[in-house]
């Protein structure tokens, strides 16, 4: 009798243990299958998405790139006229700068992602019961990674988004680590347009240059603006060793057109061929292709060292 | 009543004394020197002058500047100063001409839709032309074409109103065309938000760093336009009395006005095509001269060119150095410094004008 009791007790404990272990194993898989409702904190406050969205409208070119990169592309039904990457994105005439609420609502979206909120756009969509995620331009690299993770969370692609962000961080760190030694003290000029508008180290792209340890010649500009217009004569006397052109698409600039500008043939970067051509859109977005920007700078720095 | 007022004005017309002419030329000379010497990169006055001496071939003078400094002075500063002078002079003399021809003290070089037309042309070329074509080469041509179309349209509408001898009708036609073109431009701009920055910076006006090419391109237009206006300066005096008065004095009002307007407009359109819209020069410079030096167009027109040139050169010095090494749009400077200066002149000299 005591023996049977012992056996019963043992079986009971065993069953309980198995049950416990099985629930312990089952619970994470269950939570991964139903990660909704998902809540994130973005530029327009705390946003809760009740269920996995399947009709996403993106009015942010950066968010479009991210959504497609994390495998949420199939859930995207419309993107704005600036979202030119990837090519498979369903580009429409919707505008993120001068948006029309009715036109957006006409797509019956269950999620609208924006990077700019003009004239109460998010409020108007909110009144129609359409959830809006406003991700303002990232100011720092961690900010950019966080936006990717957030988009993953609210679209049901947490794992892919985390992998993307981690991978980007790893690649960028590796490129920077390799080029940092060559970048010490090297001066850089980042061109936004041929009238010499540029950016300081207080901007997202400026921080990328700072990461390398490059010295941005625009930091001398007074007036507190992060996007100053430089004097041509200052630029020539600052003699940057590296020039990054972010006006290759808008304004068809390249090493040749830059060299042809009066007085520019003497600039170190022009003489040594250290003029980097960058797709304008890569340099103005903070999404997955950020790695391309970092790689372009790293490659140019690598060449610089060999001269 | 009007005729009486005009006659009274005619009696009060004062000629410009030689003293003021000398002062204006001296002002321009000072502006030229300051313009070449001042800049975000500090180069000593003496060094610049010695470099100039070498360039002028003065024996025994050699430039102490290194290659980069030489390049800054001769490839950037000197052409930019000359460009500012050409544009400022052109806008000022065109403004004075318009004010005389249209008997309107508020007339400026952009009165007949030049600005709106040029703006539309520039915006269209930035927004729709293939990138390889757009930019420095096509933009000025498009701006010039737009400006010309706007003025021709304004003139045609004014004529169709059947009263083209009436200056007010032409001004109204200009305002109409300007509103229409501005609306079109805003629409195109909104459809192409990605090019907003380019369009905005063009509209605010800036002197480009294109070296000598823009100076060479602009000079013939400014020379011809200025020569025509200065040659006709006595007729402008008569025209400014009023259309009827001028006609009774034997002036072919319609033809004279057309010639003057075409000259002023062609010069303005060329300047706008190169530098964008630079506000206020065409209004304050002629009025400041009227207030201090005299109202006769014989002296006013040439003086406007000289003082306008000096004014814009100095405004550009401020634009280049105020936030150096960053730049401020020159249109902002001309209004920011021009308006208080003009208010001061108005207050101190107003009673005597």
Element layout with pairings:
The complex is a heterodimer of chains A (307) and B (353).
Chain A: H1 2-33, E1 38-42, E2 45-49, E3 56-58, H2 61-69, E4 76-79, H3 101-105, E5 111-114, H4 121-127, E6 132-134, H5 141-155, H6 158-183, E7 187-191, H7 204-212, E8 215-216, H8 232-238, E9 242-245, H9 255-259, H10 268-271, E10 275-277, H11 280-284, H12 290-306
Parallel strand pairs in A: 3-4, 3-5, 5-6, 7-8, 7-9, 9-10
Antiparallel strand pairs in A: 1-2
Helix pairs in contact in A: 5-6, 6-12
Chain B: H1 2-12, H2 18-37, H3 45-55, H4 67-101, H5 114-128, H6 138-160, H7 167-191, H8 196-204, H9 212-231, H10 233-239, H11 243-248, H12 253-275, H13 281-293, H14 297-321, H15 330-349
Tally of strands of chain A: 10
Helix content of chain B: over 70%
Query: Which superfamily, in CATH terms, is the homologous superfamily of the largest domain in chain B?
Result: ABC transporter involved in vitamin B12 uptake, BtuC
Query: From the structure provided, what is the oligomeric state, counting identical versus distinct chains?
Result: heterodimer
CATH topology of the largest domain in chain B: ABC transporter involved in vitamin B12 uptake, BtuC
List the secondary-structure elements of chain B in sequence, H or E. Answer: HHHHHHHHHHHHHHH
Low-confidence stretches of chain A: 24-32
How many strand segments of chain B? 0
User: How far is it from the N-terminal to the C-terminal residue of chain A, by CA?
Assistant: 91 Å
Question: How would you sum up this structure in a few lines?
Answer:
With 307 residues, chain A is α/β, with parallel strands linked by helices. Chain A has 12 helices and 10 strands.
Written account of the structure:
The complex is a heterodimer of chains A (307) and B (353). Chain A has 307 residues and is an alpha/beta fold. Chain A folds into two domains: 119 residues, 3-Layer(aba) Sandwich (Rossmann fold), CATH 3.40.50; 128 residues, Rossmann fold. Chain A has twelve helices and ten strands. In chain A, helix 5 runs antiparallel to helix 6 and helix 6 packs parallel to helix 12. Chain A is globular. In chain A, 45% of the residues are buried. About 3% of the residues of chain A have low confidence. Chain B has 15 helices and no strands. The two termini of chain B are 20 Å apart. Chain B is globular. With 353 residues, chain B is mainly alpha-helical. Chain B folds into three domains: 32 residues, no CATH class; 177 residues, ABC transporter involved in vitamin B12 uptake, BtuC; 76 residues, no CATH class. In chain B, helix 4 packs antiparallel against helix 12, helix 5 packs antiparallel against helix 8 and helix 10 packs across helix 14. The N terminus of chain B is likely disordered. At the A-B interface, helix 8 of A face helix 4 and helix 8 of B.
């Amino acid at each position: 009798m005591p023996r049977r009791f012992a056996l019963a007790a043992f079986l009971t404990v065993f069953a309980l243990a198995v049950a416990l272990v099985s629930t312990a194993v089952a619970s994470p898989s269950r939570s991964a299958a139903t990660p909704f409702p998902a809540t994130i904190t973005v530029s327009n406050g705390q946003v809760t998405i009740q269920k996995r969205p399947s009709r996403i409208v993106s009015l942010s070119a950066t968010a479009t790139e991210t959504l497609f990169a994390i495998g949420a592309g199939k859930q995207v039904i419309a993107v704005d006229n600036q979202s030119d990457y990837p090519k498979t994105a369903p580009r429409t005439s919707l505008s993120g700068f001068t948006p029309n609420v009715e036109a957006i609502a006409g797509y019956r979206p269950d999620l609208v992602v924006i990077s700019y909120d003009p004239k109460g756009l998010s409020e108007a969509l909110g009144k129609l019961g359409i959830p809006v995620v406003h991700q303002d331009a990232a100011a720092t690299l961690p900010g950019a990674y966080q936006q990717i993770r957030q988009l993953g969370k609210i679209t049901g692609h947490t794992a892919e988004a985390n992998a993307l962000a981690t991978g980007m961080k790893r690649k960028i760190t590796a490129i920077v680590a390799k080029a940092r030694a060559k970048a010490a003290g090297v001066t850089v000029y980042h061109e936004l347009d041929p009238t010499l508008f540029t950016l300081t180290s207080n901007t997202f792209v400026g921080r990328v240059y700072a990461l390398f340890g490059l010295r941005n010649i625009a930091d001398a500009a007074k007036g507190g603006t992060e996007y100053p217009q430089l004097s041509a004569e200052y630029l020539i006397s600052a003699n940057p060793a590296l020039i990054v052109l972010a006006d290759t698409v808008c304004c068809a600039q390249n090493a040749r057109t830059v060299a042809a500008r009066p007085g520019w043939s003497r600039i170190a970067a022009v003489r040594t061929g250290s003029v980097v051509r960058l797709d304008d859109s890569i340099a103005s977005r903070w999404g997955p292709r950020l790695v391309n920007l970092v790689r372009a700078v790293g490659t140019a720095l690598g060449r610089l060292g060999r001269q | 009543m009007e005729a009486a007022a005009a006659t009274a004005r005619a009696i009060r017309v004062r000629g410009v004394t030689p003293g003021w002419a000398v002062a204006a030329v001296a002002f321009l000379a000072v502006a030229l020197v300051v313009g070449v010497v001042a800049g975000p990169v500090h180069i000593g006055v003496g060094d610049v002058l010695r470099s100039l001496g070498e360039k002028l071939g003065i024996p025994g003078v050699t430039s102490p500047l290194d290659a980069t400094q030489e390049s800054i002075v001769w490839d950037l500063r000197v052409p930019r100063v000359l460009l500012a002078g050409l544009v400022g002079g052109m806008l000022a003399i065109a403004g004075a001409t318009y004010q005389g021809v249209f008997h309107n003290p508020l007339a400026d070089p952009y009165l007949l839709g030049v600005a709106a037309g040029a703006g539309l042309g520039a915006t269209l070329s930035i927004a729709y032309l293939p990138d390889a074509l757009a930019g420095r080469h096509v933009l000025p041509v498009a701006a010039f074409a737009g400006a010309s179309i706007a003025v021709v349209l304004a003139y045609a509408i004014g004529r169709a109103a059947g009263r083209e001898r009436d200056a007010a009708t032409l001004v109204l036609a200009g305002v109409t065309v300007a509103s229409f073109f501005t609306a079109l431009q805003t629409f195109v701009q909104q459809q192409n938000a990605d090019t907003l920055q380019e369009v905005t910076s063009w509209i605010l006006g800036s002197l480009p760093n294109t070296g000598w090419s823009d100076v060479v391109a602009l000079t013939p237009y400014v020379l011809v336009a200025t020569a025509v206006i200065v040659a006709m300066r006595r007729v402008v005096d008569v025209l400014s009395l009023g259309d009827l008065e001028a006609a009774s004095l034997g002036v072919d009002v319609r033809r004279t006005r057309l010639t003057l307007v075409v000259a002023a407009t062609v010069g303005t359109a060329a300047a706008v095509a190169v530098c964008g819209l630079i506000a206020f020069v065409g209004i304050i410079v002629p009025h400041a001269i009227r207030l201090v030096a005299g109202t006769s167009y014989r002296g006013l027109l040439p003086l406007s060119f000289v003082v306008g040139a000096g004014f814009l050169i100095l405004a550009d010095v401020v634009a280049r150095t105020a936030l150096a090494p960053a730049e401020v749009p020159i249109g902002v400077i001309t209004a920011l410094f021009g308006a208080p200066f003009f208010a001061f002149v108005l207050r101190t000299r107003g009673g005597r004008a």
